[in-house]
Design brief:
The structure holds two protein chains of two kinds.
Chain A (H helix, E strand, L loop, with lengths): L13 H5 L7 H30 L6 H4 L13 H25 L3 H32 L9 E3 L4 E3 L12 E2 L4 E3 L2 E2 L2 E2 L3 E4 L8 E3 L6 H33 L10 H26 L1
Antiparallel strand pairs in A: 1-4, 2-3, 2-7, 5-6, 7-8
Chain B lengths: L5 H29 L11 H23 L9 H41 L11 H21 L2
Helix pairs in contact in B: 1-2
The chains are: A alpha+beta, B mainly alpha.
Chain lengths: ~280, ~150
């Protein structure tokens, strides 16, 4: 190493040299507590989602709503969101490598692994954008309109919808349906109830629980906003790394560590959003 | 990872990401299995799926927070000041999933109860408050009678 060891912290002496509460640098400690506060915000959203979702018998089933994959015909439940999870997890790994290169004061290594992290983040955002486009443009879901629903009684369709449903098709409670838009409004298919208290009645499909759109776009949007701002900060810090700014500093590449914490938090939130929205 | 050698740290990071990827694949497999997508007709209890999924996600969170974010290796009680709120939040989310389910059960019970009540209802309402009117009228008549009788 060509750096002057008197003015730069050796990676292994970091802890004892820093001082302060918990022997952690001010910036790192404050980043942790910001992340704790952010966790409270996300937890609040997930709590409202969880409570509403399980209290509603006609909530759309995730495997039905999220079963498209770009370029792959047919129904592939949860495959695309699993890919998104892998992309974000991998970008967390590249971030760890960037921080490790920082401890070795390897400027080029830090820049390389941070670049991969940014690419991973952009990949995730692109996937999320595709998902949103499919729902908004393709299925006409909005924050107040939800064409996805789940049947709560058994029945037989009296008309087809020109897509997957034909006249005479039957369904049981728990089966999902999607209203298709024909012109101005959705096609509310008529069906006859074949079991239970309303047996024999002719009913029409209705839109699903209104809260679905608001919660889905709100929570994934809020998370996506975190990914976006994370990418912006990563780019700024990458530029600083390349310019040699951190090689001059007493605390070395600690800034890379701090943005690493933020990035891992974004990944961690996604783990729980993935769990609550898609797996359960 | 701060006290390990560079080579050992790299190896550990690689091991962890492979572990996280495997846990994710198992999670998705079990979720799809429990909803009948892999074996036709097979269906797990919703609560069972929820518990298994939560356990897997907590395992992932443990490795992300402890190793990737290095919290396990921080000095003093700093780790605790972060972990305790996180754990309580996760408990909160789980608790409200259960709350939602019990609201659903309550809705079902209320629907059953009110449909039983409906069959006994024969109420018609003409807008007048009959009971009070009669009572006042009787009370007035009683007072009048008393006055007439006792002269005060």
């Amino acid at each position: 190493m060509s750096v002057d060891t008197a003015t730069h912290m050796d990676a292994h002496e970091t802890l004892s040299e820093v001082g302060g509460p918990f022997n952690t640098g001010y910036g790192k400690l404050m980043m942790w507590y910001f992340l704790v506060s952010d966790a409270f915000t996300f937890a609040g959203f997930l709590i409202s989602y969880g409570a509403l979702r399980f209290s509603s018998p006609s909530w759309p089933v995730p495997d039905f709503v999220f079963s498209s994959f770009p370029g792959w015909e047919g129904e592939h439940p949860l495959m695309f969101v699993t890919l998104m999870t892998f992309i974000l997890l991998f970008s967390s790994f590249t971030m760890v490598r960037a921080v490790q290169e920082g401890h070795q004061e390897n400027q080029k290594g830090v820049a390389f692994w941070m670049l991969l992290t940014i690419i991973g983040g952009l990949g995730f955002l692109s996937c999320q954008a595709w998902e949103w486009t499919k729902l908004i443009g393709g299925e006409h879901t909005t924050v107040s309109t939800n064409p996805f629903g789940t049947h709560t009684e058994s029945g037989r369709y009296l008309e087809g919808d020109g897509h997957g449903i034909h006249k005479g098709d039957t369904f049981v409670p728990g089966d999902s349906y999607l209203l298709h838009k024909h012109g101005e409004d959705f096609g509310y298919l008529k069906y006859e109830v074949t079991d239970g208290a309303d047996k024999g009645e002719i009913k029409e499909l209705t839109k699903g629980p209104k809260a679905f759109g608001a919660l889905f776009f709100g929570i994934t949007g809020f998370h996506g906003f975190h990914v976006f701002s994370g990418i912006l900060f990563l780019i700024i810090i990458l530029v600083n790394v390349v310019s040699g700014l951190y090689a001059e500093r007493k605390n070395g590449y600690e800034m890379v560590e701090k943005i690493g914490l933020y990035w891992h938090f974004v990944d961690l939130v996604w783990v729980f959003v993935f769990l609550v929205f898609y797996l359960m | 990872m701060g006290h390990m050698t560079y080579e050992a740290s790299k190896k550990l990071a690689l091991k962890l990401i492979i572990l996280l990827a495997i846990v994710t694949m198992v999670e998705v497999f079990i979720s799809l299995l429990g909803k009948g997508h892999i074996i036709e007709g097979l269906k797990f209890n919703t609560g069972l799926i929820a518990i298994i999924m939560v356990i897997f996600s907590v395992v992932k969170a443990y490795f992300i927070v402890g190793e990737f974010m290095h919290l396990k290796h921080e000095t003093g009680g700093m780790g605790k000041t972060v972990i305790i709120p996180f754990v309580l939040l996760i408990w909160g989310v789980i608790a409200f999933l259960g709350d939602g389910s019990s609201w659903l059960k309550n809705k079902d019970e209320m629907a059953t109860l009110s449909s039983k009540y409906e069959s006994h209802k024969t109420v018609t309402y003409d807008g007048k408050d009959h009971d009070t009117h009669t009572k006042t009228h009787d009370a007035e008549a009683h007072d009048e009678h008393k006055k007439a009788k006792h002269g005060h």
